[in-house]
Amino acid sequence: MENNNNVKEKTNAEKHERTKKKLKIIGITLLAAGAAFVITGFVDFIKNISTFNQPQLFWCLIVGFPMLGFGGMVTAMGFRKEIARYVKNESVPIINEVGEEITPAVTSIAGAAMSAVKGEEKIKCPECGTENANDSNFCQECGAKLKKVCPSCGEVLDNESKFCDKCGYKL
Ligand SMILES: [Zn+2]
Ligand SMILES: [Zn+2]
Fold first, then answer.
1. Relative to the alpha carbon of 126, which ligand is closest?
2. Are residues 56 and 140 located together in one domain of the fold?
3. What is the pTM of this model?
4. Nearest ligand, measured from the Cα of 170
5. Cα separation of 96 and 21, whole Å?
6. Are residues 162 and 93 part of one domain?
7. Are residues 89 and 159 in the same domain?
8. What pLDDT, in 10s, does the model give residues 78-134?
9. Which H/E stretch holds residue 61?
10. pLDDT tens for each residue of 33-64
11. What are phi and psi of 22, to 5 degrees?
12. Could you say which of 100, 121, 142 is where a domain stops?
């Protein structure tokens, strides 16, 4: 009977540990994603403010801040025991342990955020629809001359234009 109880306690503790581990991973992932969003939104905000444009990625800030807050809460929950242990002066190599599991997730999230930003700066070939790098003048797929749209007046321009020929907007 006593033995049975011990086993049960052990499973519960194990379950608890797994939950905590999940909390750590979710918390740190949220923190990283939140940070990525905040940075993305902030950079876009600054970039557009300096050119008097409407910041298009402002939603990144709106999404990022609660994500950071929530991530912080979840992380604190997951690390509560470790924090208590740390206070007791026991060194725990948790950062490394969690770090190894987290890194791929963080890398892929950061990558997704980056490609979302870069994706907006891609220029679509008017002939074949291939996405080309923003600074390309000709399509890498079919060689067609690429066009861009003036962000100020909407005029369609050659991609190598430095200024809009209709409104003079600096591109
Ligand atoms: Zn093309
Ligand atoms: Zn223009």
1. 1
2. no
3. 0.40
4. 2
5. 13
6. no
7. no
8. 887 776 766 665 545 555 666 666 666 676 666 666 655 554 567 888 899 998 887
9. helix 58-78
10. 999 999 988 888 888 877 777 777 878 888 88
11. -60, -45
12. 121
Ligand 2 centre distance from Cα of residue 134 (Å): 18
How far does the centroid of ligand 1 lie from the alpha carbon of residue 131, in Å?
8
Beta strands in 113-170 (DSSP E): 123-124, 131-132, 147-149, 156-158
CA distance 100 to 110: 16
- Residue 2 binned pLDDT confidence (cut-offs 50, 70, 90): very low
pLDDT surpassing 70 at residue 1: no
Q: Which ligand is nearest to the CA of 125?
A: 1
Residue 71 and residue 106 in one domain? yes
Distance 19 CA to ligand 2 centre (A): 56
* Distance from Cα 23 to the centre of ligand 2, integer Å: 50
Total domains in the fold of the chain? 2
User: In the chain, what is the greatest distance between 2 CA atoms, to the nearest angstrom?
Assistant: 87
- 92 and 155, same domain (yes or no): no
The partner residues of 156 in beta bridges, in order of sequence, read: 149
Ligand nearest to the CA of 152: 2
Domain of 162 in residue numbering reads as 123-171
Question: What ligand has the least distance to the C-alpha of 129?
Answer: 1
137 and 81 within one domain: no
Same domain, 15 and 51: yes
